[in-house]
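User: I'm curious whether this sequence folds into something compact or stays loose and floppy. Could you predict its structure so I can see for myself?
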Amino acid sequence: MAFGIPSPVPGGAGLPGRRGTVDESELLTVPDGWKEPAFTREDNPRGLLEESSFATLFPKYREAYLKECWPLVQKALGEHYVNAALDLIEGSMTVTTTKKTFDPYAIIRARDLIKLLARSVPFEQAVRILQDDVACDIIKIGSLVRKRETFIKRRARLLGPKGSTLKALELLTNCYIMVQGNTVSALGPFSGLKEVRKVVLDTMKNIHPIYNIKTLMIKRELAKDPELRTQSWERFLPKFKRKNLKKRKEPKKKNTKKEYTPFPPPQPESQIDKELASGEYFLKERQKKRKQMEEIKAKQADAVKRRQEERNKAFIPPKEKPAVKTKKATTEKKIDIEAIKEKVKNAKKKKLGALPEEEVKLKMAADEKKKKKKK
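Assistant: Here's the prediction. I'll summarize afterward.
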């Protein structure tokens, strides 16, 4: 099986001090567009000695899709002489080699195919795993974050608004990425899978994927320049500092530490010390008992008094609001006949439209003043 490394030049090529020495950098570089030759039956004409098989379970919601596309799966695996069986009762898929199978790695690719189908990857994408230059990686992200709410937020951050972040990652890495439940399935070249795994794990560690996407964009531009291929790219790549702006939650009960003193705390007073201070220690037994009985009786009297006051509260009448006397509306009004007669007399004296007497006098006086001024 060819590994893509050129054979050494005959005559001791690559050894110092001999003719035909070749630089090591030339030996390790792979020319552009070179592909490893495909594995054919001529490479392994006798086939495999033992039968190998792999099985994987699939969720209930994938049953209808797998049942529909299973003839296509069998046809694709049949080209590599690998049998595939679908068990709907047990909910499992099984792949096994046959006597005609000549490629020993075909069963590993078939195993990856059924794993991808179980993780909701469509058949059109999953069948690409049977190609030589395509690999897959199933990243488990369910156990990386403790809180379920935080996990959902970070998983949504990986997808981005309307799947824009995931699409950008797919374009930069040339991989197909499927985020489903607690796993992220990636399908593509080996170099792209390495970058996808790094971005996914960093996102779960609370590092936004946009930083890694910026780095990948710069790397892609740098790879186009043949002079920079052998140089270090650290000076071109951005360095992002992590800023933890979230403040620590303060506890409700703050335990304030007392000042340290080398001296021990004062010893509490005993019962004898208290009796000596009050003078009870020197009293006789009878006097002590009498004093105790007096204290007990005083306490009992206070309790009885308090209890009696609480009982008497039920017999105290509540304060009544003062009753407001409603004045009865007088229906009958006294009629002043004399006042009506005077109004009628005054109305007869007056002419209709005539001015009152006071206004007439004021007007006469104003006319007289005007006549005097004219003279």
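Summary: The CA atoms of residues 245 and 319 lie 63 Å apart. The first strand starts at residue 53 and ends at 57.
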